[in-house]
Amino acid sequence: VDGLLQAIRAAGALNDTLVIVTADHGGHGRTHGTALPEDLTIPWVALGGPVRGGVVLERRIWTYDTAATALFALGLPVPDNWQGRPVVEALRVATPTGR
Hints:
- This protein is α+β, with helices and mostly antiparallel strands.
- It has helices spanning 2-10, 37-40, 65-73; strands at residues 18-22, 44-48.
- It has a two-stranded antiparallel sheet.
- The longest helix is centred in the N-terminal third of the chain and has 9 residues, at 2-10.
- The chain is globular, with a radius of gyration of 15 Å.
- The model has no long low-confidence stretch (mean pLDDT 88).
């Protein structure tokens, strides 16, 4: 991630770029897949252009919210049949209507 961020900054594009770092699942030790909070909790970090800095997300974020957030940040509609919802509280953009 550091190399990617350095390249984005070097290109002067951080203000125009949304970077989301996440994982498909949590884990503990050398295992995952249990009902432990360590296995069910994923990291979800966003930075760059549309991100509101310093926001700590209070609601549960699901893996499938990442794609919905990317579409929303690009100004594209999130399909109604998707489970994922944009993490709008992390962004400096208007909330979607009808969602």
